[in-house]
Write a structure and sequence with these properties.
The chain has 99 residues and is mostly beta strands. It has a single domain, classed as OB fold (Dihydrolipoamide Acetyltransferase, E2P) (Beta Barrel). 0% of the residues lie in helices and 47% in strands. The strands form 2 sheets. A 5-stranded mixed beta barrel has the order 1-2-3-5-4. Strands 6-7 form a two-stranded antiparallel ribbon. A hairpin with a 2-residue loop joins strand 6 and strand 7.
Length: 99
């Protein structure tokens, strides 16, 4: 699993039939301090996340192991909306405070 911030949406009117009805979001990968790293990724949203929220996502074969992505051509899926995280007993992110 990886941490990321939802920074946008993707709209596609033409897509593989098995992807119909799925919501796609653009994620910016973040480090343990919430700073942007690496690059962005498009992921299927399995938890109704919104722009600005911090999320956990899985990619690769793990991206196809949720109920809505099973047997679908998905490389990444958002599987949790993050409320907070702590590193070495120090809160690094708390929803509503660091947004």
């Amino acid at each position: 699993m990886n941490l990321a911030k939802v920074v946008g949406t993707v709209v596609s009117t033409q897509k593989e039939q098995s992807l119909e009805g799925l919501k796609f979001l653009i994620l910016q990968k973040v480090d343990l301090d919430g700073n942007d790293i690496d690059g962005s990724i498009v992921a299927v949203d399995a938890v109704s996340a919104g722009v600005g929220e911090m999320v956990l996502y899985a990619s690769g074969s793990s991206g196809r192991q949720t109920e809505i992505t099973d047997k679908k051509p998905c490389d990444a899926v958002i599987m949790a909306i993050v409320d907070s995280w702590e590193v070495n007993y120090e809160t690094r992110y708390k929803k509503g405070v660091n947004d």
